């Protein structure tokens, strides 16, 4: 039976017929969302049908003077529609039936003869905000958890409960486009500024502020003033707004994400339409997007991410961490120190000279300056957080630290020496973490008396922007060290993936062969600029040679050599990488010359590269480029699963998206593999093995999956 008419079990596992409490007091109807068996309030099928019953009941009360919608859940008004139900939509006609019913319920609320008020405390997202927009008035608390937004585009859909139509009428065209096209939520303060809410009530003052506001509503003393600008009132101004928004969207999405473009089309098409006409156009656009492969991929990633948030990598005890030290005050060390100060943890930063300390200080101040410029933090807050960072040239103060992160250059002997020194200067039980990108944590631990305290904590550069942290378990790493490191990463707002100790760990082990294969193709005469263009068109944030320049050819080459030493001939470093770095001293962007020539704002082809290969560079078939590079990653990823380097498929895919920028619209590396077809991959890898060499030999896992007609994700 289709989900709209199923009245049985909710997606959270129990009946939600009591998801909304109906109260009638002093001629006020109060609808309080808050099912006992659910963590968050969501607008599932059953909840919406229950809402309809309550609205009908309210409409039948002749003495009623007001309807108030609120929530009993802490920090949550309504988190949105039920994403499981959206995921299940697979037919446009049935999806339209779903929307028609939802819109009918929302219309009943909107057309009530009595004033309606939404009292918002906590998250109010997606369908939750669309519900609030159907109310005559909206109040929000100043709770830091109160966020209002329409994040649907992040799931490959657009607001389907009227958001594209009602929001512009309330806050104006420009502000509504910002919210809908980015999906970014806003604070209650911002919501008041743009006219989305009527007033803010400070936390703790509800009893003093709410009732007088409701009295004013009933008495007709509260007026809604819909915002727009002079630019929005006339056709040329609107045209400019829409053209600018479209240009910005295409630059950002490169056309890979249809949802924001569709939302823009809907709003532009209906800007002067009646609500009824506009809602019909919105519904049609939603139906097309909701059943699309891209939407299913993005929703799948949403659930993968939610699952990853619940994983801890071990059942060890999480130790308390109140003070941290960072050894190595370079760009990475400075970024790590900044991260801990941001979450109000005292940080002690050490290096061998004040000059080097200065590099770390500059990095910290640079990141906070960006926060101030974007109005994410004020001066006083920044001063408070930077005051948490102290500096030293020795190990003074380390006895107070619960956690120490090493962030020096990738040299095993140096790291061993430093960890031996650190261990002598910290208290018993202090967890020691290395920010290595590829070196063995197990070997590093041999320098310690207590190797169980050492764990890998691989941040990605830049620390303030990259969401991923690899937590590496050495052979003797304790369960507590793993759990504490994961907890600390999560507290810092990072996504932590626990991986086994092997050369390159997970992300670099998969990424470096991809970059190396691009270089092998260049050695054979493929044009490096074309390779970059094709891979960017595939959806990667940048091509492999641009990435090599960004990372630094010295860094990339050294990591590639570590993988060659670890895995042998199948990861042999391409000749051009060796020549460019070792013979010509090219470093990439930091020296202004790599595969490209770089200045402050532009890059151009470095024609010197053509003289570093033996073949004349020619154009290649685009599908060949994609297959050689992407299937190389798929093959190595399957080997990682074979060897239990990572716990599961979803964690691997999230790591590749967050660590390399693998295009989310494709659902992840292994979701892409499923779409390509496992047998097709095995056939293509076998072909490349015969034509190019043994580095393309299909993994045992892929061969077995093809034989058994399996996929990485069930149901594909």
Written description of the protein model:
The chain has 716 residues and is α/β, with parallel strands linked by helices. It folds into three domains: 3-291, 2-enoyl-CoA Hydratase, Chain A, domain 1, CATH 3.90.226; 323-501, NAD(P)-binding Rossmann-like Domain (Rossmann fold); 508-645, N-(1-d-carboxylethyl)-l-norvaline Dehydrogenase, domain 2 (Orthogonal Bundle). It contains 28 helices and 20 strands. The strands form four sheets. Strands 13-12-11-14-15-16-17-18 form an eight-stranded mixed sheet, with helices on both faces. A six-stranded mixed sheet has the order 1-2-3-5-7-10, with helices on both faces. Strands 4-6-8-9 form a four-stranded mixed sheet. Helix 4 (127-133) crosses helix 5 (163-171), helix 6 packs parallel to helix 9 and helix 9 runs antiparallel to helix 10 (258-270). It is globular. The model is unreliable at 1-16 (pLDDT under 50).
Topology readout:
Elements lengths: L19 E6 L2 E6 L11 H15 L6 E6 L4 E3 L4 H6 L3 H19 L5 E5 L2 E3 L1 H7 L3 E5 L5 E3 L13 H9 L1 H10 L3 E2 H7 L4 E3 L4 H13 L16 H19 L4 H13 L4 H16 L2 H17 L13 E5 L3 H12 L3 E5 L3 H20 L5 H8 L2 E4 L10 E4 L5 H13 L6 E4 L6 H4 L9 E6 L8 E6 L5 H13 L3 E6 L6 H17 L4 H11 L5 H8 L1 H15 L7 H9 L12 E3 L4 E3 L16 H21 L6 H12 L8 H8 L1 H14 L8 H8 L9
Parallel strand pairs: 2-3, 3-5, 4-6, 5-7, 6-8, 7-10, 11-12, 11-14, 12-13, 14-15, 15-16, 17-18
Antiparallel strand pairs: 1-2, 8-9, 16-17, 19-20
């Amino acid at each position: 039976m289709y989900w709209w008419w199923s009245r049985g079990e909710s997606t959270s596992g129990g009946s939600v017929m009591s998801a909304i409490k109906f109260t009638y007091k002093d001629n006020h109807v109060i609808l309080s969302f808050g099912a006992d068996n659910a963590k968050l309030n969501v607008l599932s099928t059953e909840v919406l049908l229950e809402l309809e019953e309550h609205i009908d009941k309210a409409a039948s009360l002749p003495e009623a003077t007001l309807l108030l919608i609120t929530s009993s859940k802490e920090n949550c008004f309504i988190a949105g529609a039920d994403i499981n139900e959206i995921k299940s939509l697979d037919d446009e006609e049935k999806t339209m039936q779903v929307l028609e019913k939802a819109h009918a319920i929302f219309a009943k609320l909107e057309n009530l003869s009595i004033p309606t008020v939404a009292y918002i405390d906590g998250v109010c997202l997606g369908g939750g905000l669309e519900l609030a927009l159907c109310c005559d008035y909206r109040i929000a608390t100043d709770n830091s958890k109160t966020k209002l937004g329409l994040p649907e585009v992040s799931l490959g859909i657009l607001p389907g409960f009227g958001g594209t139509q009602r929001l512009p009428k309330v806050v104006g065209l420009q502000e509504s486009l910002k919210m809908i096209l980015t999906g970014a939520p806003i604070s209650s303060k911002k919501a008041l500024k743009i006219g989305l809410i009527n007033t803010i009530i400070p936390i703790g003052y509800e009893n003093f502020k709410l009732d007088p506001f409701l009295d004013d509503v009933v008495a007709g003393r509260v007026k809604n003033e819909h915002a727009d600008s002079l630019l929005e009132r006339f056709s040329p101004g609107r045209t400019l707004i829409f053209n600018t928004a479209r240009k910005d969207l295409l630059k950002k999405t490169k056309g890979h994400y249809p949802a924001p473009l569709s939302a823009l089309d809907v709003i532009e098409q209906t800007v002067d339409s009646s609500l009824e006409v506009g809602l019909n156009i919105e519904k049609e656009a939603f139906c097309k997007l909701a059943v699309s492969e891209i939407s299913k991929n993005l929703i799948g990633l949403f659930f993968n991410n939610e699952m990853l948030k619940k994983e801890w990598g071990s059942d060890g005890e999480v130790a308390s961490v109140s003070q941290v030290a960072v050894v190595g005050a370079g760009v990475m060390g400075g970024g790590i120190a900044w991260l801990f100060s941001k979450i109000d943890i005292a940080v002690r930063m050490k290096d061998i000279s004040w000059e080097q300390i200065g590099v770390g200080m500059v990095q910290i101040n640079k990141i906070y300056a960006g926060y101030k410029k974007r109005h994410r933090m004020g001066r006083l807050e920044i001063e408070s957080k930077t005051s948490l960072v102290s500096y030293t040239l020795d190990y003074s103060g380390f006895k107070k630290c619960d956690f120490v992160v090493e962030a020096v250059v990738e040299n095993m002997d140096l790291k061993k020496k430093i960890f031996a020194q650190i261990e002598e200067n910290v208290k018993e039980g202090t967890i020691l973490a290395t920010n290595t990108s590829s070196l063995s944590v197990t070997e590093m631990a041999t320098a310690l008396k207590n190797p169980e305290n050492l764990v890998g904590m691989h941040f990605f550069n830049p620390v303030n922007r990259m969401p991923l942290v690899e937590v590496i378990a050495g052979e003797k790493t304790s369960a507590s060290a793993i759990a504490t490191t994961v907890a600390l990463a999560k507290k810092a707002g990072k996504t932590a993936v626990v991986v086994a100790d092997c050369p390159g760990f997970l992300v670099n082990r998969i990424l470096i062969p991809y970059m190396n294969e691009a270089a092998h193709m260049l050695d054979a005469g493929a044009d490096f600029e074309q390779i970059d263009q094709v891979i960017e068109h595939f959806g990667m944030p940048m091509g492999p040679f641009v990435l090599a320049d960004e990372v630094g050819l010295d860094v990339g080459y050294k990591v590639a050599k570590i993988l060659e030493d670890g895995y042998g001939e199948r990861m042999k470093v391409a000749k051009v990488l060796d020549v460019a770095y070792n013979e010509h001293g090219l470093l990439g962007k930091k020296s202004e010359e790599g595969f490209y020539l770089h200045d402050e704002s532009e890059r151009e082809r470095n024609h010197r590269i053509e003289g570093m290969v033996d073949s004349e560079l020619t154009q290649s078939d685009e599908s060949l480029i994609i297959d050689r590079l992407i299937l190389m990653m798929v093959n190595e990823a399957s080997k990682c699963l074979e060897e239990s380097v990572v716990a599961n498929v979803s964690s691997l895919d999230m790591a590749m998206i967050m660590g390399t920028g693998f295009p989310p619209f494709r659902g992840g590396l292994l979701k892409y593999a499923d779409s390509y077809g496992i047998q097709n991959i095995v056939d293509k890898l076998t072909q490349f093995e015969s034509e190019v060499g043994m580095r393309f030999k299909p993994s045992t896992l892929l061969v077995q999956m093809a034989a058994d007609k399996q996929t990485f994700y069930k149901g594909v």
